[in-house]
Amino acid sequence: GSRGWSIPDHLFLNEIPCNPEIRDWFYRDVCDAVQVALQDASLLESCAGRLKIECVPPELNPEMDSFRVGTMLEMVREIAIRIGVVMGRRVKVCIQGSLGEGIFTGMPLMLNGMRRVMEGMDWQSREGEMYEGLLINDIINRRTGEVAIPGNKEGRVAFGEVGREQVEDEDEVFIIIAPQSMVGASVYEPLSQMVEAAGPNRTVILINPRLKDRPSSSNVMSVQGRSQRIAFAASFREIFHFRLLYTGTTFMFPIQGALRMNFANSPRWTLFKRESTTSPDDRNGE
């Protein structure tokens, strides 16, 4: 299915944090899928510009304690740079804000503080650096309140939240990091409004979305409107997928194989089986 592509040897994904070379391998793989998809006009027309990435090794799986915000943001940074610098398009990276009302306002734990970390990352956008002038937003020093890195109106990467008001005429591609609902608050309304405002001629990319309903006693995400929410979630075309496979009664260990699909190689899915090249006796002696 992947046209001769194979998983590299010694891909030890149970090591947290992973070897930087392993992370870079995932980043390149995902970036290739995004670039090929954005260059495929027929694909974008068929899905109205709605794309989805599901990349969930342990460090990127929001359902695991091993999830690392830094790994997620590094991958998003590489995607944004590939789109903005290599492809020359303006991209807006979005993280949802608080959901709910009144005292029930809140944010999923994995997204809490992510925007601040993203802005504080090294984007190599300062004067004299590799991507000078890349960022559109001013980067504010959180301690002093002063502008640490002035934004560039002609830049290629902007930051935002999830909502209709975040869509600007200049934006060409939107990356939304792990959109998800909470018990008592749904992300469906702001996300669907944003996608509608972007329209079919611009691209919205969801990274590791969790759009399933989370019903509560307050009747939020109940039966009413469920078919529309399911149809909306299903409207995004998956262009990359990687996840590990485990035995039916265990979680995270032992790894039995992996499931992968990369639109840059082939739209077909490939199932990989883990094989050990050493015997149990050899491993015990190491």
From TrEMBL:
<dbReference type="Pfam" id="PF09353">
    <property type="entry name" value="DUF1995"/>
</dbReference>
<dbReference type="InterPro" id="IPR053021">
    <property type="entry name" value="Chloroplast_ADK"/>
</dbReference>
<dbReference type="InterPro" id="IPR018962">
    <property type="entry name" value="DUF1995"/>
</dbReference>
<protein>
    <recommendedName>
        <fullName>DUF1995 domain-containing protein</fullName>
    </recommendedName>
</protein>
<feature type="domain" description="DUF1995">
    <location>
        <begin position="20"/>
        <end position="277"/>
    </location>
</feature>
